[in-house]
From TrEMBL:
Residues binding substrate, per UniProt: S14, N15, N16, A17, G18, K19, A76, F161, G162, F163, D164, K184, H189, R190
Cofactor note: Binds 1 Mg(2+) ion per subunit.
Catalytic residues in the record: D75
Amino-acid biosynthesis recorded as keyword: no
Class of the enzyme per the UniProt entry, highest EC level: hydrolase
Gene (name only): rdgB
Residue intervals passing through the bilayer: none
GO molecular function, one term: metal ion binding
One Pfam family cited in the UniProt record for this chain: Ham1p_like
Enzyme Commission numbers on file: 3.6.1.66
Name the record gives this protein: dITP/XTP pyrophosphatase
Originating organism: Tepidimonas alkaliphilus
Entry's family note: Belongs to the HAM1 NTPase family.
């Protein structure tokens, strides 16, 4: 891999279409193509850790080893103040602990049910990105982004994915799901992490990019 030319492809250690679209747009200045691990026949990696950065690193190593490509992994979640920072790394499967099948809609439903009588609605959406040139890269690139807001009493908006319909942003007076995609990308936790990652890649991997 040339230091001045980015590789044609980076494998994204996720099969989430929403993450793929957001990260592809946010990293467009690097002129790289993100491909999901699933499109390469790579199964999902175990996520046994209790922090975002450890899980992202495990996923990136798994995808890089299986694909032979540089890898990018995102581990993100919702951290609710009233729940001591939960669901955190369990965000994607949050609803299953309440008997619902895994889905974004069921996650939102379960969260609102659990917060029905909770007055403290403070929450943060957190994204941690890890990039590796190879599975044994001793110097992974790590970038994080965080956005604070409030859990709405009811879903609003049709955009985004995950908990976007109930993540109310006082700064905008609406939820993430009500924002245009370009505005969301400019202000989201993943957008902030991706901009930091882009800067790191330009500095450390591809100075001329």
């Amino acid at each position: 891999m040339s230091r001045t030319e980015p590789p044609r492809r980076l494998v994204l250690a996720s099969n989430n279409a929403g993450k793929l679209a957001e990260l592809q747009a946010l990293l467009a200045p690097l002129e790289v193509e993100l491909v999901t691990q699933g499109s390469l026949g790579i199964p999902e990696a175990p996520e046994p850790h209790r922090t975002f950065v450890e899980n992202a690193l495990a996923k990136a190593r798994h995808a890089a080893a299986a694909s032979g490509l540089p890898a990018l992994a995102d581990d993100a979640g919702l951290c609710v103040a009233a729940f001591g920072g939960g669901p955190g790394v369990d965000t994607a499967h949050y609803c299953t602990q309440f008997g619902y099948p895994k889905s974004d809609a069921h996650n939102v439903r379960a969260l609102l049910e659990q917060m029905r009588d909770v007055e403290d609605r403070r929450a943060a959406m957190v994204s941690t990105l890890v990039a590796l040139r190879a599975p044994d890269d001793p110097e992974p690139l790590i970038a994080s982004g965080r956005v604070e807001g409030l859990i709405a009493r009811a879903p609003a908006g049709d955009g985004g994915f995950g908990f976007d319909p109930v993540m109310f942003l006082p700064e905008f007076g609406c939820t993430f799901a009500q924002l245009p995609a370009d505005v969301k990308n400019a202000h989201s936790h993943r957008g902030r992490a991706a901009r930091a990652m882009l800067a790191l890649m330009r500095q450390r991997w591809w100075p001329a990019a």
